[in-house]
C-alpha cells in the first residue's frame, strides 16, 4: 500500500533551521514529481516547494524562496525540505505529496512545525 511518512518537524526558534524528510513506499517514487504543502490554522493550504522526478527541477513558493531547499534521493525513496531562517509564519503542518498533471495523488499524514521565540 502507498505510504508517505513525514518526519523532522518540531519546535524551532525564529531564525533557526529544520530538515523535513518524507519516506515513500508502495509506489514507484522516482516516477513522480514530489511536493511539500503546508497548512496553518485558519489559513488555506499553501504550496511550499516541488521537485522533479530526477531532482533537477525545483519550484518554490515566494514565501520560502531563498530560505528553503527541496531535494530527493531516489535510491532511498526519500524527499527532503531544508528550511532555514525560520519565521513564525512558517508554523504549519507540512505534508508530503506525490504529484502528477492531475495534481496531488498521494498524501502523507503531515509533520508539525512550530516556530517560536
Largest sheet: 7 strands, mixed
Gyration radius over CA = 13 Å
Q: What kind of oligomer do you see?
A: single chain
Distance N to C terminus: 40 Å
* Overall spatial form: globular
How many H/I helices?
Answer: 0
Structural class: mainly beta
Q: Helical amount among residues, as a percent range?
A: under 10%
Q: Report the count of strand segments.
A: 11
What is the H/E string? Answer: EEEEEEEEEEE
Strand content: over 45%
Low-confidence stretches: none
Describe this structure in words.
By secondary structure, this protein is mainly beta. The protein has no helices and eleven strands. The strands form two sheets. Strands 2, 4, 5, 6, 9, 10 and 11 form a seven-stranded mixed β-sheet that branches. A four-stranded antiparallel β-sheet has the order 1-3-8-7, with no helix packed on it. The protein is globular and about 40 Å long.
